Amino acid sequence: MARVPIFSAPLISAFLLVIAGCDLLEEKPSASLEVRLTLKLKAVDEADHPVSGAQVKLGETNKGETDSEGVVLVTLSGQPGRVAPLMVKCPSGFASPEKSVDVGLTRLAPGSPVPEFRARCTALLRSIVIGLRAENGAGLPLMYLGKEIARTDASGVAHAVLSVPPNETASVQLDTSGAPALKPQNPSLLFKAGNRDEMVLLEQKFTITQKRVVTKPVQRPKPL
């Protein structure tokens, strides 16, 4: 009669654990465990105005571009708890944020609103509207960086739009070379650009110097 090997209970338990362990190591994560998340990313400037044309990337993958409202819908998928670092590349004229927009993958409850994230694009230049009033200064060229940008009208008023870096102090100049009677000559007017588009009001007062008329004394005949 063949002898049947007898295994002890601890040995049988250990054998079953080894088999179970092999199954777990070979098992791949189920696709049903993945999270699919759609989010809204909005690109804005410092004044919270929408920025269109900003590209959103996940690694080397382009996930979309913001529309005229500064918004793009991005769909992500992966294991719950994973973090997706979205990089935002702002359009020309703006500096892109240095840090990524980190989105944690989570399963939302049915009916939950679409989560929204924001990225800030910093404008490299600001639009400054110059409003100038020059008393006694009609018809004067308004100069910026050596170029004429406007000319005062008959009442001494002029308007111009400049592009200036944020927080930079700039100046415009009234060219009085064609009006030597005005004082002061060629005055410069300083202003400082802020962190947003704005209007700057400038004033300059001129005095008009009168030419001195020299009269010669009347020559009277001398008595003989």
Can you walk through the features of this model?
With 224 residues, this protein is mainly beta. The chain has 2 domains: 91 residues, Immunoglobulin-like (Sandwich), CATH 2.60.40.1120; 83 residues, Sandwich (Immunoglobulin-like), CATH 2.60.40.2610. Helix content is 8%, strand content 43%. The protein contains 1 helix and 18 strands. Strands 3-2-5-7 form a 4-stranded antiparallel sheet, with no helix packed on it. A hairpin with a 2-residue loop joins β11 and β12. It is rod-shaped and about 130 Å long.
Structural class: mainly beta
Which fold name is given in CATH as the topology of the largest domain?
A: Immunoglobulin-like
* Rounded radius of gyration (Å): 38 Å
**Number of separate domains:** 2
Q: Taking all residues together, what is the mean pLDDT?
A: 86
Overall 3D form: rod-shaped
Q: What's the end-to-end separation, in Å? A: 181 Å
CATH architecture of the largest domain: Sandwich
Strand content: 35-45%
Using brief descriptors, characterize the structure shown.
1 helix, mainly beta, 224 residues, 43% strand, rod-shaped, Immunoglobulin-like, 4-stranded antiparallel β-sheet
Summed up, what is this model?
The chain has one helix and 18 strands. The strands form six sheets. A four-stranded antiparallel beta sheet has the order 3-2-5-7, with no helix packed on it. A four-stranded antiparallel beta sheet has the order 12-11-14-16, with no helix packed on it. Strands 4-1-8 form a three-stranded mixed beta sheet, with no helix packed on it.
